Amino acid sequence: MNRRPDVRRPQPQRRGPGPGQRAPEVPGLAARRVAVRLVDGVLSRTRPLDAALEVDHDPSGFRALDERDRALARAIAGATLRRFGTLRTLIAARLDKGLPKKGGPLEAILATGAAQALFMQIPAHTAVDLAVAAARADPDARHFAGLVNAVLRAVVTEGAPESEPGADLPPWLQARWIRAYGPETTAAIAAAVAVEPGLDLSVKADAARWAETLGGSVLPTGGVRIPGGGRVTALEGYSEGAWWVQDAAAALPVRLFGDLAGRSAIDLCAAPGGKTAQLAAAGAEVIAVDRSAERLQRLNENLSRLGLTATPRVGDAATIALEPADVVLLDAPCTATGTIRRHPDVAWMKRESDIAALARVQAGLLDAAARLVRPGGLLVYCTCSLEPEEGERQIQALIARANGGVRIEPVLPAELPGLEAAIDDDGCVRTLPSHLPADDPRLSGMDGFFAARLRVG
Ligand SMILES: C[S@@+](CC[C@H](N)C(=O)[O-])C[C@H]1O[C@@H](n2cnc3c(N)ncnc32)[C@H](O)[C@@H]1O
């Protein structure tokens, strides 16, 4: 009996293969099933997208795919998560009784199917048929293959809705940003995170030459921006270690130290080493601390490709004992809500309660970092979060706790040409995804970051 589903005209009533039987693989199905697992890992808050793509033990099956299918699975998962707010609403409107409880990855199957048809250039019948096939291949979702077919046919017939600012953000996050930045700026942030961004590089030297070689432009932050797509490792200059991937906003905190030649530096929470590379390239003697030995190994590999050196130390930044240094950088663990543009999974992995828990960790790390600065030295604190609790309020609280021992060294407009709007009234840096606008939305924007420069002692 031929069990291969008719990919042009699905028959939802047909049952999948019985126990012990294997259906021949439908073309394109493997990539869809992996995309479903990637999205389901995020929606169930068990696996961030990048972790699923990188870890050796890969429960999604991503690494078993060939290169083309990997790119397709990644693109489907990315497009789904970027537009997930809209997709969830469209799907919910077609489900009178909500999502069945025992459907396994049913929501991920529906969302990836709809994303392909509505937001990627994939023919609707292919997207729907492969979603039905993915449901049939899943032990829990197979009972709902008919529902997948019905819901997706209705969704694709209706077509993509007008995009509304904020429709793709979790409501709790949108509400917080409106409180922190106002409705207009929040709409601008939402528009910026809706577009998959290009690639930002920090270069060791000669930004103009690398911009020309790679078909990009030099940013006011000193880095190079190129259109995204393609394998980073295949780009010119990668193997010779001429540059590393680093968002334009992530490159700002180290610049706040000024001249670093010959100075001692401690980089706390350093892996995978984007900022360590900047410190080392600027001539500092760097100790790079991270609590994860595995991630420090990646830092070592990255530095070695770049021909740069730092002393790695595995340890907890809150308690590590080190000789005080001229400058200390604390790039604290945070909710990373400023990076949703590049990591759309972050919006759906995080919970609002994560903010308070991380803010407590950040306060402890800040106190420890301040103790590692030699008297009169500089501390730069940064997070890639848009939440004031993880940025501005950390600094206000530290200054109050330090009783005159720590003060903000305000960043001057001349230090950030082209980004003066990112300097707040206290002289700290607050970048937003809507900063650095350009005509082409894919070449616009930057991560949301907070950075404060502090004089200690
Ligand atoms: C935001 S990432 C750092 C990115 C890095 N600074 C860069 O520019 O490439 C946060 C890092 O902090 C590390 N980390 C989290 N808590 C830590 C702690 N208490 N002590 C040391 N490292 C920590 C994590 O292992 C992770 O590598």
From TrEMBL:
Residues 1-27 are annotated as: Disordered. Keywords: Methyltransferase, RNA-binding, S-adenosyl-L-methionine, Transferase. The active site is at 384 (nucleophile). The keyword Transferase applies. GO terms for biological process: methylation. S-adenosyl-L-methionine binds at residues 269-275, 290, 331. This is RsmB/NOP family class I SAM-dependent RNA methyltransferase. Residues 13-24 have a biased composition (Low complexity). Pfam families: Methyltr_RsmB-F, NusB. Residues 166-457 form the SAM-dependent MTase RsmB/NOP-type domain. The lineage of its organism: Bacteria, Pseudomonadati, Pseudomonadota, Alphaproteobacteria, Hyphomicrobiales. Belongs to the class I-like SAM-binding methyltransferase superfamily. RsmB/NOP family. The keyword RNA-binding applies. Its EC number is 2.1.1.-. GO terms for molecular function: methyltransferase activity.
